[in-house]
Amino acid sequence: MEKPLIYIDPRKAYELDQEIAKSKKVKDRNLALQKPTILIDSQKAYDLDQQLALQKLYYRPEGLYQNIKGLWDACKKAGYNFLFNDVKKWLDSQAIYQIFRPLPRYVPYASYSKITKLNSVHQCDLIEILCNEDVDTDLLDNSPIFYYVLLVIDCATRYKDFIFLTSKSSEEVAEAFKSIYDNPDNPLNWPRLLQCDEGREFMGSVTLIMDEHNVNIRRIKARFRHTSMAMVDRYAESFELRVFKNQYAIEFLLPTGERCRECERFARRIVDNINDTTTRLIGMSPNDTTKLERVYSKPSIKYNRPIGVDEPRLSKGTTIRFLLAPGEWENDPFERHRITDPIWSPSLHKIRRIVVGKNPPMPVLYYLDESGPRCPFVREQLMHIKEEPILPPRWVLGDNRMHIRRSL
């Protein structure tokens, strides 16, 4: 019996294959639409793994490294081969690392060489000194009698004067200012600006008498005294040192155990000698500079970087952290810096105003927004925050939770 012959039309077979392939594609497409496709970027996955690993190493209790190398060495010890620059970039963005970054090695301060006219700006201070009531060296009474000395210095000419006081009352201090400024033989007159500390002796009657003569008072906080009251502080050091050296010279000739407490006898001669001595920055004595209309002095600070117009500066609205003064963040009344205090401000601020000193050139001064301090800052005292700081992860609360006793 013969086998039946099957004839296949090639054209119809080709069309059938096309239809089968087309239906298979539609079926695969529908299947693909039903199952979501996840595309994973290998670089982003690596960055995420890196961030999680760095978080685990840095925020553990024994972590919180103070420098980049410490964290990088911990990564290598844990078996990670992260690049140093990647570790640095991650650590620089952490908020906890930012506020404990090291202090800048060099901070340029503004100089007083821009003040050129006599009686434009005065600095004053009240110092406590051990004296006797009379001029004679009375050593029988060992009870200390404290006198006070009001020191005044002109910032342009460096001319200095003083008045002895018996108390720190604002009434007596106001009378002392009046006796200095109303003396026709004294080159010092009522200034346009008076810089002093926040002591009570410079309030009350002192404020009233300064208002009568249109004198603005700028009260300097203790934490900024080293920059804003440098001249009168140096004057006070010289005054006390030379006065006490004279007292020690007298004590060498006195019986053992007896002390000299007089200073009024030679204080005036000491200050007159200081006013006759040539100053280093002006090249003239204060007595000679009081005869000039304008006094030009060299800057008191040598700058190791471009300043003024040539200085690269930040723009307004830049987000920054500012360098904290000792005891500023914790409001320590003794202005002490503790090892636990942050170095840079935990709060973020914006730059509100920029002042560029041109003649003579000065470092660019930055003023912050209303929530920040009112004093100006130089570039080294500001930390530029380019991106949003990264806060510690939430799991830190679970690992380092502190049990706080609730008050009844």
TrEMBL record:
Extract the InterPro entries matched here: Integrase_cat-core (IPR001584), RNaseH-like_sf (IPR012337), RNaseH_sf (IPR036397)
Residue stretches making up the Integrase catalytic domain: 104-294
Superkingdom of origin organism: Eukaryota
Choose any GO biological process term that the UniProt entry carries and state it: DNA integration
User: Which one of the record's GO molecular function terms can you name?
Assistant: nucleic acid binding
Q: Which SUPFAM superfamilies match?
A: Ribonuclease H-like
Q: Name one GO cellular component term.
A: nucleus
Return the protein name.
Integrase catalytic domain-containing protein
